[in-house]
Each structure stands twice: as structure tokens, then as C-alpha cells.
Specification:
CATH topology: Rossmann fold
CATH class: Alpha Beta
Distance between the termini: 19 Å
Helix content: 40-55%
Bound molecules: adenosine monophosphate
CATH superfamily: P-loop containing nucleotide triphosphate hydrolases
Structural class: alpha/beta
Length: about 260
């Protein structure tokens, strides 16, 4: 193993948010970060939601219509999902019922000390992917636990658009393949299930340009929320490819949380 790929240990809990447009490579960076820092794990709200939809849980049934229409799932549903995930991993001690906590977060009058307490062990380190998406969600999350690094991933729009044109999806799991850099083993077929891959019907360039613009708009408030809390919290990393971005984020995590 060369030094460049050797895994590293963390000395304190890293609670990281990845903010980046669809197609910028958040999934790739999460996987690379987990390899580099094995104490990290990813919590992706999109994956948790799809799992609930697949298992036909009440939460999944509620979320499904919003997901299919391409809209955002209502905040109380997402907060419930995150709260359950963090407390079932025993990373968060809560002092009230889930219903009361969600209601308090919705009213915006929670506080970290009254609602929950987060563990500081480095083994409770995580990367959130897909949450929080809005400043309101970030505010509610802040009552549960303190995020300590926001990584903003940026690539030029033209680079993202050409990447999205080559993107194939396994619909039921949400697994994404990219022609040319993470191809499926058999073209057009999902590696794990053997089912067919699809390109989203609404994957036209004009639709993607609109989605990217919408993302810019919502993420601006989200980043502003974190910058206002601590100007050193948000780190912007730019690159034309995942390989250009990874070394920069490795260095940042190492500097802040490494041994
Ligand atoms: P993703 O895999 O992150 O693209 O998420 C898939 C879908 O799940 C989104 O289009 C939303 O409908 C829903 N979703 C995921 N995360 C959130 C969130 N933080 N807030 C609201 N809806 C979400």
C-alpha cells in the first residue's frame, strides 16, 4: 500500500456535509472518503427513502408520491428519518419522544442541549449526502447535533452536463453508473441485480440546466446558513474531475480531524 492510499484514523468525531449539484460526484467522493478514513460512514437520505419505499413502510408510502413527482419530501418526514437513523446507531441520545422532537424542530425552538446529545467519539463520524438540502433543514439539524465541516464540491456546468448525459441508473436501488469511468460490468445491466439500467426520461439538457440552476439557488441559502455560524466551516473544492477533487478533500479532513 502506498502512502497516498493508506487509510487514516480520526481523533475526533467528523460530522461532514457534502453539498454539490447532481452529477458533481458526491457519491464517488463519499466512497473515497470512507476508504481513506474507515471510521467515516455515509448517510444518504435518498438511499434511506428508497429503502423505505421498497419495504413499503408507512414513511416510504408517504414519501413515495413526492419522490416520484421530483419534489422534496416534507421536512418532518426527512427529520424523522435522520433522527431514527442517528439514534438507532446510538450516536445520538434523545430526551423526548420522536413526535415531540419533530414538532419542536418544526417550530424552530429546539436546542441541542434540550433535545439531544451527540457522541464525540471518532467512531461516530459520518458524511451526510442529500441532507440538509435547505437552510430550514440545516437549522433543524443544528438542534440535534453540530456539523463541523461543510464540503462544497464545484465543477463547471458543461463538465457536469456531459457527465449526466453518460449516466445510467438502476431505478429501484438508485445505483448510478457513468459510461467511461464507472461502467457496469455488462453494458445496460445492473451489477448486483442483473436488472436493466435506464436513463431518466427527463434527462434532457434543458431540464438539467433548470435543475442545476434550482440547486444553485437552494444551496446558496444553505451555505450561507453555515458560513454565518462559522466562516471556517464551509470549504469550497473545485475540479473538473473526481480525481482533481479527492486529494483536496482528503487534505482538509486530515488537517481538521486527523491524528
Ligand atoms: P437523492 O438520491 O438525494 O437524489 O434523493 C432522491 C429523492 O429523495 C429526492 O428527489 C427527494 O424527493 C427525496 N429527498 C432526499 N433527500 C431529501 C431531503 N433532504 N429533503 C427532501 N427530500 C429529499
Amino acid at each position: 500500500m502506498t502512502l497516498a492510499t493508506a487509510s487514516r484514523k480520526l481523533k475526533r468525531a467528523a460530522r461532514i456535509i457534502l453539498v454539490g449539484a447532481p452529477g458533481v460526484g458526491k457519491g464517488t467522493q463519499s466512497e473515497r472518503l470512507m476508504k481513506r478514513f474507515p471510521q467515516l460512514c455515509t448517510i444518504a437520505t435518498g438511499d434511506l427513502l428508497r429503502e423505505n419505499v421498497k419495504n413499503k413502510t408507512p414513511l416510504g408510502q408517504h414519501a413515495e408520491t413526492y419522490m416520484h413527482s421530483g419534489g422534496l419530501v416534507p421536512d418532518p418526514v426527512i427529520l424523522n428519518l435522520i433522527l431514527n437513523e442517528l439514534s438507532s446507531r446510538k450516536w445520538l441520545e434523545t430526551y423526548d419522544s420522536t413526535e415531540n422532537i419533530i414538532a419542536a424542530l418544526g417550530r424552530g425552538n429546539g436546542s441541542a442541549s434540550s433535545v439531544a446529545r451527540a457522541s464525540n467519539s471518532p467512531d461516530t463520524s459520518f458524511i451526510l449526502d442529500g441532507f440538509p438540502r435547505t437552510a430550514t433543514q440545516a437549522q433543524a439539524l443544528s438542534y440535534l447535533l453540530p456539523i463541523n465541516l461543510v464540503l462544497q464540491l464545484v465543477s463547471p456546468v458543461e463538465v457536469i452536463l456531459s457527465r449526466l448525459a453518460n449516466r445510467w441508473i438502476h431505478l429501484s436501488s438508485g445505483r448510478v453508473y457513468n459510461v467511461g469511468f464507472n461502467d457496469p460490468k455488462v453494458a445496460g445491466i445492473d451489477d448486483l441485480t442483473g436488472e436493466k439500467l435506464v436513463q431518466r426520461e427527463d434527462d434532457s439538457e434543458a431540464t438539467w440546466r433548470k435543475r442545476l440552476a434550482k440547486f444553485d439557488e437552494t444551496s446558496r441559502d444553505l451555505l450561507e446558513f453555515y458560513r454565518a455560524r462559522d466562516k471556517n466551516m464551509v470549504v469550497t473544492v473545485q475540479g473538473n474531475s473526481s480525481d482533481e477533487i479527492s486529494p483536496q478533500i482528503f487534505a482538509e479532513v486530515e488537517k481538521r480531524f486527523g491524528m
